C-alpha cells in the first residue's frame, strides 16, 4: 500500500495547532534566514501553502520518510513567520485575495556562509517547481555576512585605488567588444584613459579568444597604464575579464595578479556567485561583478527572484567591490523601483558588509549625467561604452565629454551651457542627445 502523502503542518490537526505561526513568529531562539515570497493566491489556504513551502525547502519531501526527529525539526525545519494576503479582505466575499506574501524562516545552520547552498535552499525544490513563488526579500543574519565575506575593499577601496574621492567615477569598457588585437586594445585603453576615464574594463563577451587571453591583455595594457601614469600622474585600473570554468578562472586570476593586474571582472550570472567568493578568497584584487545573462533570474513574475537580490544583494555578498547594473533608460524594460532598490542593495549600510560601488551601464552618454546624479548622488560610476567610443572625435574625445558633463553637473551647471565651452561635450550632445 502506498505511503500516505503528508507534510508536517499540512494535516488539519497540525494546521490548527500552528495557526499562530502565520501571523508573527513565535518565540524562537534559532538563528534564521528570512525569505519572503510572493505568489498568486493558492487554491485553498495560503497558510497551508506557506507551511508546505517552509517544510519542502528544508526537511520535507512529498512523502513521509522515517528518521525525522523533533531535534531535526527544531534545528533544521523551516518555519512560517507570516502570511499576508493581498489585498487584505476582512469582510464580505465579493472580493478575494489575488496574491499572498509569505515569509519563511530557514535555520541559518542549514547553509553556513555558502551562497550556492543558500540559493538552492531558497529557490530550489518547492519554490521553483510545485509552488511557483518569487523571492522578493532575503534577510540574512550577520553571521551569514561574516561567513560569506562580502567585498574585500568595497566602494571606498575603489575610490582609494583611483584617487577619486568625491565625484562620480567614470568607467568605460574597451570597444569593439571582441576581435581586437592586443595592440589595438592597448591603444584604446590609452586613448580612453587620457580622455579622463577612471577605470576601464573588458567587455563581458571577451575572455579567451584565439588571439587574446586575460594574461596577454594584462601584459599589453599594463604597459600603457604605466605610460598614462608617467604622463598624467593618474593610475587607471583595468578590470580584466576572467569569467570561465572555475579551474581556469582561478588559474587566470593568479596569473593576471602575477603580471600586475589591478582588478578582475567576473560575470557572476554565468560563472556563479560562488565563483566570485572563490576568486575573492584566492586573490587580493578588487572584483567587478557583471550581470550578463541574469534576465532569466528576475523576469518571471511567478518564480526566481527580484533584481535587487540577483544583481545587488548577492554580488555584494559574494565579494564584488563594484557591480554593473541596468537602468530603466538603457533599452532594457527594468522598473524604476528595481533600479533604485538595486543601488540600495549594493551600497546601503549592512552589518558585516562593506558597500559596493554601483556601475551604471546601458546606453549611458553625457546627456544622461544630470539624471543619474540627480537620482543616485555621487557614489556611483557612470559606465558608457558606445557613449565614449562612438563619439565623432574618437575614444579620447568621448571620455573627455563624459568628464566635462560630470564636472558641469557637480558645478550645478546644465550640460548644454557647459557645451558652449567644450567642443567634445557639444559634439557628444549633438550625436547622442541631451537627455533620456
Automatic annotation (TrEMBL):
One of the Pfam families matching this protein, by short name: RuBisCO_large
Q: Which residues form the Ribulose bisphosphate carboxylase large subunit C-terminal domain?
A: 159-432
Residue ranges crossing the lipid bilayer per the database entry: none
The family database entries (InterPro entries) matched by this protein are listed as: RuBisCO, RuBisCO_lsu_C, RuBisCO_lsu_C_sf, RuBisCO_lsu_N_sf
Its name, as the record gives it, is Ribulose bisphosphate carboxylase large subunit C-terminal domain-containing protein
Amino acid at each position: 500500500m502506498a505511503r500516505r502523502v503528508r507534510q508536517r503542518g499540512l494535516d488539519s490537526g497540525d494546521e490548527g495547532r500552528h495557526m499562530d505561526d502565520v501571523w508573527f513568529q513565535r518565540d524562537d531562539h534559532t538563528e534564521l534566514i528570512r525569505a519572503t515570497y510572493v505568489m498568486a493566491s493558492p487554491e485553498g489556504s495560503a497558510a497551508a501553502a506557506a507551511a508546505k513551502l517552509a517544510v519542502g525547502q528544508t526537511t520535507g519531501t512529498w512523502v513521509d520518510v522515517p528518521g525525522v526527529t523533533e531535534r531535526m525539526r527544531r534545528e533544521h525545519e523551516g518555519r512560517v513567520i507570516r502570511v499576508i494576503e493581498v489585498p487584505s479582505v476582512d469582510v464580505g466575499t465579493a472580493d478575494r485575495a489575488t496574491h499572498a506574501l509569505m515569509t519563511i524562516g530557514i535555520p541559518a545552520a542549514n547553509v553556513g556562509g555558502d551562497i550556492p547552498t543558500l540559493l538552492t535552499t531558497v529557490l530550489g525544490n518547492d519554490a521553483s517547481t510545485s509552488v511557483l513563488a518569487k523571492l522578493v526579500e532575503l534577510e540574512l543574519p550577520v553571521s551569514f555576512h561574516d561567513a560569506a565575506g562580502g567585498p574585500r575593499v568595497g566602494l571606498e577601496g575603489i575610490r582609494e585605488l583611483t584617487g577619486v574621492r568625491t565625484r562620480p567615477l567614470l568607467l568605460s569598457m574597451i570597444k569593439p567588444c571582441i576581435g581586437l588585437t592586443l595592440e589595438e586594445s592597448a591603444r584604446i585603453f590609452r586613448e580612453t584613459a587620457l580622455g579622463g576615464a577612471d577605470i576601464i574594463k573588458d567587455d563581458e563577451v571577451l575572455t579567451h579568444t584565439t588571439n587574446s587571453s586575460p594574461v596577454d591583455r594584462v601584459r599589453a595594457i599594463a604597459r600603457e597604464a604605466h605610460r598614462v601614469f608617467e604622463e598624467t600622474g593618474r593610475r587607471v585600473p583595468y578590470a580584466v575579464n576572467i569569467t570561465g570554468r572555475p579551474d581556469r578562472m582561478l588559474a587566470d586570476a593568479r596569473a593576471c595578479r602575477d603580471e600586475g593586474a589591478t582588478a578582475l571582472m567576473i560575470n557572476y550570472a554565468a560563472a556563479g556567485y560562488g565563483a566570485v567568493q572563490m576568486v575573492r578568497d584566492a586573490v587580493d584584487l578588487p572584483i567587478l561583478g557583471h550581470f550578463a545573462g541574469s534576465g532569466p533570474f528576475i523576469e518571471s513574475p511567478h518564480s526566481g527572484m527580484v533584481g535587487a537580490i540577483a544583481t545587488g544583494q548577492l554580488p555584494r555578498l559574494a565579494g564584488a567591490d563594484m557591480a554593473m547594473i541596468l537602468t530603466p533608460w538603457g533599452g532594457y524594460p527594468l522598473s524604476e523601483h528595481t533600479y533604485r532598490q538595486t543601488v540600495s542593495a549594493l551600497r546601503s549600510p549592512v552589518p558585516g558588509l562593506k558597500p559596493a560601488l554601483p556601475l551604471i551601464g546601458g546606453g549611458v552618454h553625457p546627456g544622461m549625467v544630470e539624471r543619474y546624479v540627480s537620482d543616485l548622488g555621487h557614489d556611483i560610476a557612470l559606465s558608457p561604452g558606445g557613449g565614449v567610443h562612438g563619439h565623432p572625435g574618437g575614444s579620447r574625445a568621448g571620455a573627455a565629454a563624459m568628464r566635462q558633463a560630470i564636472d558641469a553637473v557637480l558645478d550645478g551647471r546644465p550640460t548644454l551651457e557647459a557645451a558652449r565651452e567644450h567642443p567634445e561635450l557639444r559634439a557628444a550632445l549633438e550625436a547622442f542627445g541631451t537627455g533620456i
